Amino acid sequence: MFFHQRFVPGLAIYSYMIGDPKSKEAVVIDPTRDVEDFLRLARSEGYRITHIMETHVHADFVSGSAELKARTGATVHVSGLGGPEWTPPYADRVLRDRDDLLLGNLRLEAIHTPGHTLEHLTWAVYDQPRSREVPALLLTGDFLFVGDVGRPDLLGAEMQKILAHQLYKSVFSVLPAFPDFTEVYPGHGAGSLCGKALGARPSTTLGYERRFSPALRQKPEAEWIADLLAGMPIAPAYFSRMKQVNARGPRIIGPELPGQRPLSASDLYHRRCENCLILDVRPKEAFAAAAIPGSINIPLGANLPTWAGWVLPYDRPIILVINQPADLPEVVTHLLRVGLDDIQGYLDGGIDAWETAGYPLERVQTLSVHELDQQLQRGSPPFVLDVRTEAEWQAGHIPGAIHIHGGLLQQRLQQVPKDRPVAVVCGSGYRASIATSYLKSVGYSSVSNVLGGMAAWKAAGLPLATD
Amino acid sequence: MFFHQRFVPGLAIYSYMIGDPKSKEAVVIDPTRDVEDFLRLARSEGYRITHIMETHVHADFVSGSAELKARTGATVHVSGLGGPEWTPPYADRVLRDRDDLLLGNLRLEAIHTPGHTLEHLTWAVYDQPRSREVPALLLTGDFLFVGDVGRPDLLGAEMQKILAHQLYKSVFSVLPAFPDFTEVYPGHGAGSLCGKALGARPSTTLGYERRFSPALRQKPEAEWIADLLAGMPIAPAYFSRMKQVNARGPRIIGPELPGQRPLSASDLYHRRCENCLILDVRPKEAFAAAAIPGSINIPLGANLPTWAGWVLPYDRPIILVINQPADLPEVVTHLLRVGLDDIQGYLDGGIDAWETAGYPLERVQTLSVHELDQQLQRGSPPFVLDVRTEAEWQAGHIPGAIHIHGGLLQQRLQQVPKDRPVAVVCGSGYRASIATSYLKSVGYSSVSNVLGGMAAWKAAGLPLATD
Amino acid sequence: MFFHQRFVPGLAIYSYMIGDPKSKEAVVIDPTRDVEDFLRLARSEGYRITHIMETHVHADFVSGSAELKARTGATVHVSGLGGPEWTPPYADRVLRDRDDLLLGNLRLEAIHTPGHTLEHLTWAVYDQPRSREVPALLLTGDFLFVGDVGRPDLLGAEMQKILAHQLYKSVFSVLPAFPDFTEVYPGHGAGSLCGKALGARPSTTLGYERRFSPALRQKPEAEWIADLLAGMPIAPAYFSRMKQVNARGPRIIGPELPGQRPLSASDLYHRRCENCLILDVRPKEAFAAAAIPGSINIPLGANLPTWAGWVLPYDRPIILVINQPADLPEVVTHLLRVGLDDIQGYLDGGIDAWETAGYPLERVQTLSVHELDQQLQRGSPPFVLDVRTEAEWQAGHIPGAIHIHGGLLQQRLQQVPKDRPVAVVCGSGYRASIATSYLKSVGYSSVSNVLGGMAAWKAAGLPLATD
Amino acid sequence: MFFHQRFVPGLAIYSYMIGDPKSKEAVVIDPTRDVEDFLRLARSEGYRITHIMETHVHADFVSGSAELKARTGATVHVSGLGGPEWTPPYADRVLRDRDDLLLGNLRLEAIHTPGHTLEHLTWAVYDQPRSREVPALLLTGDFLFVGDVGRPDLLGAEMQKILAHQLYKSVFSVLPAFPDFTEVYPGHGAGSLCGKALGARPSTTLGYERRFSPALRQKPEAEWIADLLAGMPIAPAYFSRMKQVNARGPRIIGPELPGQRPLSASDLYHRRCENCLILDVRPKEAFAAAAIPGSINIPLGANLPTWAGWVLPYDRPIILVINQPADLPEVVTHLLRVGLDDIQGYLDGGIDAWETAGYPLERVQTLSVHELDQQLQRGSPPFVLDVRTEAEWQAGHIPGAIHIHGGLLQQRLQQVPKDRPVAVVCGSGYRASIATSYLKSVGYSSVSNVLGGMAAWKAAGLPLATD
To answer: Which fold has domain C2-248?
Structure first.
């Protein structure tokens, strides 16, 4: 059996391609929208992608199943156990518990494991020449992770009760049917917000998890649920939107990426695209020194899609400011993965073109931690805004700082004074750059980014407070 | 923990890179000589390769540890338990049972598991934040495979006794210390000749193997050994040579591949390189229709290195005939992996250059299975030579055929008559092409390749015999 | 001024991209249908393709102007001087003599130079900061080549009279307006059939051509025309078709190549695509040893499109047999360039899949020149068919051979006896392989390809005849 | 004849590969040190590089002839007419005037055309089947450019007299032997400092230049020389060094680039490489917002090598700060081209690693032109330093600014006050960033970069002065 695990950093998504060496047919499980990787892999390994399977309706990325179907003609197999509301229209086959799929010598069996979502399936893969009774591995999607289980709180408070109960049953009534030695391949790795504390290993076994995962330790249901929900990180605002997009079926992109149109500095200056949002993906330092007024900075990197989902509006077309045209495919792929499809183009000639046109520039002050420390010891210190997560904040912060999670800044803006300099700090300066650009765009005039963030603060031995 | 499994098809080698996300240090386990893959991976993932580990002295490929050390400065860690004879000179640290290595949060512990070789180590990898007592996974090298164990018979009959006994002990005394749920990552996959019947899945667990692997079923030692050795495929002649090369330390290649020199048809015709062997890697059909007299055909593909190891002499420089210069790096990499380093160059302009120079051509007759069937029903049928493995032969063959394993043809040549047409058959025509080219090169004048081989014979419903 | 000349080997097409460094606007002249090269170049050099220009309606390849327009939004500028019949519908601007186009500091002026076609334009490019009166260079399309002029005989005997007269006037009345030192960039290079004897240099000057090109030597019109037409090679049958396709406007391909569908050997054997033609692009030797009955062999290489235009029917869908899937894009691009758009897919698993299925095989005998020589000296020699051009034939051929240009074989088939072995010879064996495959496909049973062709025959010192 | 012109942007170097299609031998003319391009081209086109020719001892880049010889075994052909001092030791053949080289049908003849240097050769290329008397083209090196001639003033005032006289003779006594229609392929294009005003077209003809190039207009020698030298831009300091390197023969690099070693932030902070210079190639904005104290900024781009030659010392090892490891090969290639070979490595993790380690940061203030304008109208305006060329300065500058060519800043540092804020302006901000980083590194505390530079100043309609 051919087995390939593919990782998308940042969103920390695992997708899979499993093939039968005899028939040369392959199934792809939980693809993202940028399906070229799988098309290329199938070509190079000599497989035909004939089936596409989903474990559940994803909340953190747009499903690539419809896209891959359009490119290959493969059939899509999804759970029907969440009802019509959660059954994507592009499905060719709607499955119930224990339905299966044959691929040469392989059998893939759908096991209903609700909890993260109502319809969630775990796929048990049987390597039939070795055993027809015991699966070789489980594709557990967002039900069971390395070191964790999928969170049941993404569909709102009401659903949370139902889902948490289902999750408890899936963990303690469904999973026990499978032996300790079963391999487990999850839908996410470390960094994903679909769980609380995912481990970095790409796979695990049921026995290892039973022994070492707090989430699999048997307890009374109420206690287990309380422990699970304690300290759960907040979910990005875009998650509920993603679920809708996936349940309704996303737009097909096709082989050509959008956003390839170069737009002149003059076009941008005169806002030819009136309602457009300017997304600047240059490094935080470059943005700090010179930016187009009103633009939002999310530096290019694995975390771009998550933060784009947190802070960008879904109803405004996007224009990109990038370092070089070669960056375009990567940026656009990141945005498409979280459903930000309306990308109008990019600033031709980059920020240089804007600068040499003599248009106005915006700046964010940069501070080293030593400079911030000095400012804090002077008469009128800045307002220190810490935009990290709750857990990071609790592990230690700058004395006197105020904590607002970066993803909630738009909602809690009234807590940030406009008449004082604001120094934004995060772990390293990345999230702070997003926050400073946002504050600038809504009229804060004196905003600074503490470069190196709390990592630098700690490395420099500066004082920490814990609440 | 960063975990990457890399597969080399044909030789069916698994190598690994494991990294500690904090320190960004990585260890590479059992690399092949073409180390660019790991250099590129480390670069793209932001890791520094600081350590190289071996499980044992390999028999089927040249170790890339010395090469990788030369390119990275990493230290090499090998077993010293086979004595000085089996301790490569390029090692920086020579290990005993239970020695270990720390890489940030990871601990890698050397477990002595002799049997395939005297010095063989299994590496137990501890993901210490989750458990300091139980390893997350075992890198079992050629000790334990998916569905099989490593063969103890590669070092000759005398050593076989010792090794088989040790293997029994490793399986039934060492391995039981690890729980069922331990993940197992072996050194080879399906197709490798380092075991009898390796499975195609890239990993497994101890429990799955204990339950479904015949090799792990408890029996009295003598019986277990007899079962293990029964039906063991013969090992390629080059295996013993590889062991010597690895034990002594191979030559460093450096970043530039050898063999890049174009040689004219006239150079080849006049044998400017007197002792050179001409290796033609074009498809079997192309070779059959027109070849340089005396050349050996091993068509480019994953099995090229194994067959090169079987049939090519190690003391003659090689000149290549390839379809196009773009194939050169792949061919040369294949040869380097099995220690065929002395590659002089390639025929400039390909076979066209030879043809248009008006030099003599050699041909192998091609036969469809229908044509062979007709010939066999006529008065003077050809001598049908089946060059497959013993197991394939026993599963059914052409009535009246004679069986000589392709790798043993040079030794058993006297069994093949020179005064009759010889029709060579294998599984599909690949091995038959190697054999026909060899027969031609030693003076057999009427040789044919049965295209499609036994696959075609069976598909066409022609009669089968079993002994 | 940015200046890039792009060469397509085989069809020997020169296309151009010229850019204005200030405005970063670029014009592309005479693109082929595979426009990715220009899109990539524009991206990497920072230009926007804003204009597309044609010199004339091409006969030897499908114009890529419509394709490039669809991908860039650029405007297309063509000659209207051939009347509506020769004005492509995708044109945005239809030009008359001396119309021009401004691109920043550049001026491009359309000069009517009929002769190869009625509407033919030469583009004079003025580097205006240096001179507004004298062009820096001429883009002469198929009017003026290095060492030759474009042929006036492609539109039939009647038009030939008109065009030859116009060509004489273009050469001796229009061209003299430009000084000796004008650079000349033509639309084709050596190997193109749009002229008689094109030189291999990529550019020239008017003065060099006036001094050394036989076609520019002043003579009485009748004599000049007679000399020009003497020894003109025959034009491929597909030329007239291409003109129609270009004049009507070709289909838009888009970014994804057709023909990517793998088809099983069983699909082909059972002719699921009833009317399909199987095109085998493997090397001539591979085809000779084993082929699907009825398939046509045009080995992959620069000359594939020309020969595909010569010998393939335009009304049958095509299925490909290729060495490896990686060859697919190149093969498909070749076919698209000459308008063979209906490509259904390719044989999955290559010829191996056909062979191992046990399906019947077809073979072409291969002969070295020495073997042919021996056969000719025996009692019943084969019928030797020479498929080279008239000029090659006249320069020397095998005594007793019969000459039929490979492109005319279908028309003159009755000249080839069916009851004798036929040995086909060309320059090296390439064209002979096409011819042998054709003969096989129409029922000739004993056909052989003389490998190395006349090059080998001469190199071996075998006897030559001249008529 | 195969003809390929290769352009290196920034240094604006043209190198050439010319091949004979029959013998498949090729000559490369004036290669740079990064010879992979030519190796790849030769491979893909099926040529063997058998000869390497130089036009002269280059001043602006390190010759790649020795490197290419080491990789191919080709012979190197150089002029001996400058005497032993100017004859590189790696030459295989030392030529005199009218010596020639045969390459199949091509003849390449060395024409002594001194003036730019003593030994300078122009190579006349004869396409012998067309004409044995008149060359098809001239490779004019740094003797004759599009729109200009090579400068005679690079070897010091004394040599300038001799060279200027020789140049006059080469132009008016040697060149007239060749007809107007001769094509001219020069050694440099627009942007090179080896001439005064090179045109952007990649080639020209003698006639076009005779008619439109001021440098070819016949005048009395003294007047011609005076005009030629008037307004000559100053030559970079590194030119004289390059000449020495080339005359003595540069070090061979081999296929692996130096500088691949990642160095930790801690290594840099503790200056483990004591004498090292830190070269930061990030965009000017990124550098402005956060930099390692003492580092020099030359943003990655085509002009990096010229400015590296201007401002970097040749006796200090270099450590790089780059945006991403993928930039490394480009940066290193740029440095090698101008002989900066001692590259120790790069900052692992980029500037982020420095920032999160809590190390001190340096900043350059950025100003828009509007902000500078406001500052100039206030009480204590900054010292405005204009670092452009003389010609740019004279075409208009900011009233009250002081002009020091960026390449001369180190020598004229005493003209820049340390006790006032310094605002540096150039054309767009690129050169200003280099200058500000230098000023910072030598202790100027208040330095700002006027982003957009004079382009922005003019676009914004701000007042201009001319002296």
So the answer is: Metallo-beta-lactamase; Chain A (3.60.15)
